[in-house]
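A sample follows:
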Amino acid sequence: MAVNQDTLWDRFLSPIIGSLIDFEKLQQFDETMNWEAECVRVAARIEHRFRNPDLIYPDYYSTQNFHGIEGGYLNGSAATTYDPITQYALPPNEAWVRQGLIDTIVGKPRRILDLGCGTGSTTLMLKQRFPDAEVIGLDLSPYMLVMAEYKANKANLDIQWLHGMAEQTGLDDQSFDLVTASLLFHETPPKVTQSILHESFRLLQGGGQV
């Protein structure tokens, strides 16, 4: 079984990021959000549920304190701190980095899957870039998906959200013409990364892009 490790984040990055972010303000927002109730509410409202009761979290995901958050992405606090942390982790500007990746996409994909979508930052940008496309964001954290839906609603964007594993989505073969994954592979073990790439190409239609 995997164990929590003294990561590069814990040793070096956490003190720096901690001095830049107003965590007290973020905690106040976190305390106003009933994460469990939101998961249930959204599950009742949309077809694709935010919490899959049959999903078993892999050890590499459930035992790690990603970004210094106890419980990692299976803690609602991670959903409120992820965006502020990422803006400093991707200098000089997080949106520029994400947009630069989107700018490499050729043509106009009609069906897009964003693996490990987190709070939906890239997913929203994909929908804004390709408004006529069906865009789906998939993530293992129901709390991150709640935040993603919150952001999509504020931006008035129609995006589907799936609670699932990037390495085993359960989606149909050759069902997407664009599969993306941003800021994901630094958090997955090498074998899982290989599995995610294999799954991406399984999902891809002929002539599609990863």
Summary: DSSP finds nine helices and five strands in the chain. The two ends are 31 Å apart (CA to CA).
